[in-house]
């Protein structure tokens, strides 16, 4: 009886060992798809890959950062007139960057005064983006009309500091790059108070208010 039990146990153990050996042999003989294995040689893959170095889009280009501190701007006499069909007045100012670096978000704040010198209205014109060295653009400012408007003045500033202005008779675009052709954005004040800006180092120009038609 005991001999029969030992014989069965030995048979089961031998079957398990044989199955384990067969699985191990199958695992070692299996190779990944796309590769070959040979005795005495290393395994090589059946696919190749090539990596090309990435090149920056700015490679070889000279980038000049926007000016910080005081910038220099030339401008012509501002032209102010009423806007037909609207209760507003419009001022156009041609400006040129006379600095050696780009000017970020050049801004002109217009302030309107009555005969006694009190502030009665104001508006702001901004050039979005950068004004390149030598580039000419036109800033447009629209302000709600006030019957007490008598004279106006302008203060120049930019995103990184103040502006030193110089008034000239005419302007030519001397920028190396062409302008975008997009008009400067304008923001009219409805409170009658001008936005806070850094004053120009020169005395702001003034004009008399146009008569509303």
- CATH topology-level name of one domain: Immunoglobulin-like
Q: Which secondary-structure class do the elements indicate?
A: mainly beta
**Biggest beta sheet summary:** 10 strands, mixed
Quick one: CATH superfamily of one domain? Immunoglobulins
Please characterize this protein's 3D structure.
The protein is mainly beta. The protein has a domain at 71-208: Sandwich (Immunoglobulin-like), CATH 2.60.40. 13% of the residues lie in helices and 34% in strands. It contains one helix and 14 strands. Strands 3, 4, 5, 7, 8, 10, 11, 12, 13 and 14 form a ten-stranded mixed sheet that branches. The protein has a two-stranded antiparallel sheet with strand order 1-2. A two-stranded antiparallel ribbon has the order 6-9. Strand 1 (35-36) and strand 2 (44-45) form a beta hairpin. The radius of gyration is 39 Å and the shape is elongated. 25% of the residues are buried.
Give a topology summary.
Blueprint: H1 2-29, E1 35-36, E2 44-45, E3 71-75, E4 79-82, E5 88-97, E6 103-104, E7 107-113, E8 119-126, E9 130-131, E10 136-144, E11 151-158, E12 161-167, E13 185-188, E14 206-208
Parallel strand pairs: 3-12
Antiparallel strand pairs: 1-2, 3-5, 4-5, 5-10, 6-9, 7-8, 7-11, 8-13, 11-12, 11-14
What keywords describe this structure?
elongated; 14 strands; 10-stranded mixed beta sheet; single chain; 213 residues; mainly beta; 34% strand
In short:
The protein has one helix at 2-29, and strands at 35-36, 44-45, 71-75, 79-82, 88-97, 103-104, 107-113, 119-126, 130-131, 136-144, 151-158, 161-167, 185-188, 206-208. By secondary structure, the protein is mainly beta.
């Amino acid at each position: 009886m005991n001999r029969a039990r030992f014989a069965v146990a030995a048979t089961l153990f031998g079957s398990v060992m044989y199955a384990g050996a067969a699985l191990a042999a199958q695992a070692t003989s299996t190779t990944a798809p796309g590769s070959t294995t040979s005795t005495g040689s290393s395994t090589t893959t059946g696919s190749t890959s090539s990596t090309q170095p990435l090149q920056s889009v700015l490679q070889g280009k000279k980038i000049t950062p926007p000016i910080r501190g005081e910038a220099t701007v030339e401008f012509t006499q501002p032209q102010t007139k009423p806007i037909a069909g609207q209760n507003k007045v419009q001022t156009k100012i041609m400006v040129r960057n006379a600095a050696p670096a780009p000017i970020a978000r050049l801004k002109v704040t217009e302030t309107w005064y009555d005969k006694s010198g009190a502030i009665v209205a104001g508006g702001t014109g901004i050039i979005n983006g950068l004004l390149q060295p030598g580039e000419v653009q036109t800033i447009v400012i629209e302000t709600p009309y006030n019957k007490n408007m008598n004279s106006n003045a302008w203060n120049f500033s930019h995103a990184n500091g103040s502006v030193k202005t110089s008034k000239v008779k005419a302007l030519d675009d001397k920028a190396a790059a062409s302008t975008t052709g997009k008009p400067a954005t304008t923001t009219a004040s409805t409170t009658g108070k001008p936005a806070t800006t850094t004053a120009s180092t020169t005395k702001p120009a003034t004009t008399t208010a146009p008569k509303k038609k």
